[in-house]
């Protein structure tokens, strides 16, 4: 009888600890029950994930990132000059990571550029595209950053870059 009470006590304690961990994870990622959310994605990334879906929809491409198995984190990336990564593993098949120091100091447009670039890899399956246009300007949001082209992603060129992102899916 004494063993049964100990077992129940340990089980109750374990359940309480697990429940509090789940609450902390829900605070970080958000609850998967919430409407308009992205399970296993840092809440700070949600507006950019939602905007990615909306921009794709404007171009006739239906995307549901909440249904996709994509995780999203904002954390330190140890590699110099890397602002974002899309990585693959058995545990985390499509993991978007955005560098925290970059995120903390970037404009909303710069954040969008990096998140959309990484979702271009993780969701759209796009590769890097070093195409260069007039005066050495990058023609794709999917440029690697190691090529010779110059970024020109701004309010007036944004639409052109997003058209290319969502319609040129062979690259």
Mean pLDDT: 83
Radius of gyration: 20 Å
Helix content: 40-55%
Total helices: the number is 5
Q: Record the strand order, biggest sheet.
A: 1-3-2
**Structural class of the secondary elements?**
mainly alpha
Biggest sheet, in brief? Answer: 3 strands, mixed
Low-confidence stretches: 1-33
How would you describe what is shown here?
The chain is mainly alpha-helical and 171 residues long. 42% of the residues lie in helices and 8% in strands. The protein contains five helices and three strands; from the N terminus they run ααβββααα. It has helices spanning 2-29, 46-58, 100-105, 108-122, 158-167; strands at residues 71-75, 84-87, 95-99. Strands 1-3-2 form a three-stranded mixed beta sheet. β2 (84-87) and β3 form a beta hairpin. The longest helix is centred in the first third of the chain and has 28 residues, at 2-29. It is globular. Residues 1-33 have low confidence and may be disordered.
Short description, anyone?
The protein is built from five helices and three strands, in the order ααβββααα. It has helices at residues 2-29, 46-58, 100-105, 108-122, 158-167; strands spanning 71-75, 84-87, 95-99.
């Amino acid at each position: 009888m004494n063993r049964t009470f100990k077992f129940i006590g340990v089980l109750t304690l374990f359940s309480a600890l697990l429940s509090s961990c789940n609450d902390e994870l829900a605070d970080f990622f958000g609850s998967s029950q919430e409407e308009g959310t992205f399970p296993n994605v840092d809440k700070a990334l949600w507006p950019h994930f939602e905007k990615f879906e909306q921009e794709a929809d404007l171009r006739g491409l239906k995307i549901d990132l909440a249904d996709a198995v994509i995780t999203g984190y904002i954390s330190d990336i140890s590699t110099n000059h890397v602002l974002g990564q899309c990585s693959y593993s058995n545990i985390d098949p499509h993991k978007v990571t955005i560098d925290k120091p970059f995120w903390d100091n970037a404009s909303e447009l710069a954040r969008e550029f990096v998140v959309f670039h990484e979702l271009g890899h993780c969701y759209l399956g796009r590769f890097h595209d070093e195409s260069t246009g007039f005066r050495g300007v990058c023609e794709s949001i999917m440029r690697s950053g190691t090529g010779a082209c110059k970024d020109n992603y701004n309010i007036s060129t944004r639409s052109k870059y997003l058209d290319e992102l969502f319609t040129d899916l062979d690259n």
